[in-house]
Amino acid sequence: METIDRRYRGLEIWDVDDVAPAIRDEATAAALAMLDLEGVSPLEARVAQFTLEGMDDKGVLDSADPSDFGLNMAHLNACREAEAAARRVIERLAPNRAEPYLMLGVVEWALDEWQVHDKDPTKI
To answer: What is the CA 56 to chain-centroid distance, rounded?
Structure first.
């Protein structure tokens, strides 16, 4: 039987493999706290980021209202605030880290549940 870790409700931070696990945990907790403060689930934040990336690939950002393409700007802004909160933790606790970039992600089990049941398992 597979054990699913739901400690951060499916939220994970990408591109921080070079950061110690304890620091990653603290950064993830900070990001989740920011999302909760904004009332946005980890999945909603990640879907907003995916939507933006898809729009940018198609070159529609300059010529259209992002909401016309299904982009929820409140979710995107919450995603960015959560990433900034995680980044501040990493910058404070791992100041010599070579790569300052990070991104919010959602673990596979959360995506699978969302696709199968059409329900966001990352909401509180």
So the answer is: 18
Number of H helices, E strands in the chain: 4, 2
Tell if the pTM clears 0.90, that is, is over it: no
d(CA 26, CA 43): 19
Structure tokens at 19: 């950061």
What pLDDT does 5 receive?
63
Spatial distance between the Cα atoms of 105 and 95, rounded to a whole number of angstroms: 22
Tokens of 66: 């992002």
CA angle 116, 78, 55 (to 5 degrees): 70
- Tell me the pLDDT tens digit for each residue of 31-47: 999 999 999 999 999 98
Distance CA 52, CA 60 (A): 10
Q: Is-contact 16 83, C-beta < 8 A?
A: no
Q: Give the pLDDT score at 1.
A: 46
